[in-house]
Amino acid sequence: MSDVAATCPRKCNCNLSRRVQCYRVGRMPKEIASTTRRLYISHSKIKQLQISDVSRLSALEEFVLTCSGTESVERNAFKALAALRILELWKNKLRCIPSLLPANLEVLKLGDNLISVLNESDFEGLKKLRVLDIQNNPILALSSSSLSSLSSLQSLTLDGNNMESVLGPLSLPNLKYLSMENNKLQFFPGSFFTALHTLLFLNLNGNLLTKAPPDLPTSLVSLMLERNQLKMLRSEDVKQLANLSELCLSENQLSSVDGAQFLSSLTRLELAGNKLQTIPVSLPATLQKIDFSNNQIEKIKAQDFQKLQDLKHLFLDNNVVKTFEDGALQRCTVLSNLALEQNLLSSIPLSLPHTLTRLDLKGNNIQRIQEQELKNLGQLQVLNLRNNKITALDHDLLKHLPRLRHLYLEGNPWNCTCDLFRTRRVLTAKGTDVKGGQCSAPTESKGENWMSSKRILHLCIHDNLYSDEEGKEIRKKANADNPSSLRVDTDDYYDYETD
Which Gene3D superfamilies match (predicted)? Predict the structure, then answer.
C-alpha cells in the first residue's frame, strides 16, 4: 500500500487493484503508474488529450474522462493501448470521434459532446465493439454506411441528437438494442430495419413520426413509440411482431388501434394520452398491464376484457367513463390494481374481481356505497374515494373489507351524524389508515373531521349511541395522551405498497 500511495498523483486516489480516480486536476497527471488498469478522471480541465498523456499506460483496460472540457484528442492517442476495452469521454466538447481507436475496444461512450458527423473511417477496425453511445450530440443525419464495419455491435444509443433523417438499411447483424429517442425523425425508409434480424429493443420515443416504421424486425420484444404524432396503428404495421412483449404508444394522437390480435406474446400495452373513445377490440389474452388513462373512453362494455385472464394492472383514469357494464372485469381473475379516478361514474362497478388489492375511484360522481359493490372485495387493501359526493358510510359495509389498510375520504360532503361514529369505531379497530373525513353537515360540525373530532364523539356517547361498556372504552381511548391511535392523517400525499 505504501508503494501505491507514494506514486499516486495529487488529487487522485489509487488502490492495489490498479485503479486510479482523479478529481479536479488541471492536466493529465504524469505520475500515474504504467501498470494502471482503470483510470477515472472527472470535473477537471484537460482541454487537449495528447499521445504523451496516455501512451505509456500500456496496461490500461478502462479509461473514463468526463466533465473536463476536453475539446480534442491527438491523432493516434489511443492506438498503442492494446488492452483498452472501455473508453468513455462523455460531457466534454469533442467535435469528432477520436481517430484510430484500438482494435480490442468493446465499449465506446461519447454522449454530451459536439460531434456532428459520423464517418465510416471513425470506426474502422473496431470488430469487437459491442456498445456505442453517442447521445446528445448535434448529429442531424445518420447514414448506415458509417456504422457498417461494426459487425459485433449489440447496443446503439443515438438519443437527443436532433436527428432529422436516416438512410438504410442499417446492417448490424448482432444489434439487440437501438435507441433513437428525442430526435426529429418524421419517417424511416422502408429498408431501414430489414437487416436487423436480432433486434430485441427499439426506442423511438419523442420523435415526429406520423405512422409506425415499416418492416419492423420479427425479433422485437419491446417497441417504444411514445410522444410522437401517430394517428393510427394498422394491422400491417405490427402483424409480424409475434414475439413483442411490450408496446408503448402513449402521448400520440391515436383514435384507433388495429392488429393487436396478432401480438400473441404481448404482456404490456401503454396507450395513455391518446384520443381513444372505445377499448380496442381483440386484445391479446397474454396482457398483464394495460394503460388507457387520459383518453376519451365513455363506456366499458362486458366483452372488452373477457379474454384477459392474466391481466394484473388496468388504468382507465382520466377518461369520461359514465357506463361500466356489470361483470365487465369478472373474468380478469388475477387483477390486483384498478384505476378509475377522474371519470363520471355514479357508482362502484359491480362484480369486480375478488383479487383486487387497490381500487382508485377519486373524482367521480359517487353518492352512495352499496353492499353489493363491496361484498366480493375481501382482498382489497387500498380504497380511494376522494372527491366524490358521498355523505355517509355504513359501518356494516366494512365487514366485506377485512384487509383494508388505506382509506382515502377527502373532498366528500360528509354528513356527520352519530352513525358515522360506528364506522369510525370499526375503522379504528381494524387499524385502517384513514385520510380525510371533513364534515359538511350539520352546521355545528362543519369543518371538523369525523375520524378525529372528540367533541362530536362525546356528543354521540352522551346520546347513548354506545353501550355503557363501549362508552367507557371509547372515553378511555379519546382521552389518551396519544391521539395518533386513531390513525388519522390528512396529508394529501400517499405512497404505499400492497402485499
Answer: Ribonuclease Inhibitor
Q: Does residue 456 register a pLDDT over 70?
A: yes
Residue 161 pairs with which residues in a beta bridge?
none
Quick check: 449 and 437 in contact, CB under 8 A?
A: yes
Cα separation, 97 vs 99, in Å, equals: 6
Amino acid in the structure at residue 315: F
**Do 224 and 205 meet the contact criterion of CB atoms below 8 Å apart?**
yes
Q: Which helix (H) or strand (E) holds 460?
A: helix 454-462
pLDDT digits (tens, 9 = 90+) for 461-491: 765 554 444 444 544 544 443 333 333 333 3
Over residues 25-44, the pLDDT tens digits come to 999 999 999 999 999 999 99
Asked if residue 214 lies in contact with residue 238, where contact means CB atoms within 8 angstroms, the answer is: no
**What is the Cα–Cα distance from 148 to 172, expressed in whole angstroms?**
7
Give the whole-angstrom CA distance, residue 13 versus residue 82. 24
Q: Is residue 156 helix, strand or coil?
A: strand
CB-based contacts of 336, cutoff 8 Å, min separation 6: 312, 313, 355, 356, 357, 358, 498
- DSSP notation for 237-274: HHTT-TT--EEE--SS--S-B--GGG-TT--EEE--SS
Which pTM value belongs to this model? 0.88
Is 300 in a helix, a strand, or coil? strand
Return the amino acid letter for 367.
Q
* pLDDT of res. 485: 34
> Pairing mode, if any, of strands 12-14 and 19-23?
antiparallel
Distance separating alpha carbons of residues 149 and 128, to the nearest angstrom: 10
Q: Are strands 38-42 and 62-66 parallel, antiparallel or unpaired?
A: parallel
What element of type H or E holds 131?
strand 131-133
Residue with grid cell 382509506, as numbered in its chain: 407
Q: Is the dihedral of CA 302, 308, 314, 318 positive or negative?
A: negative
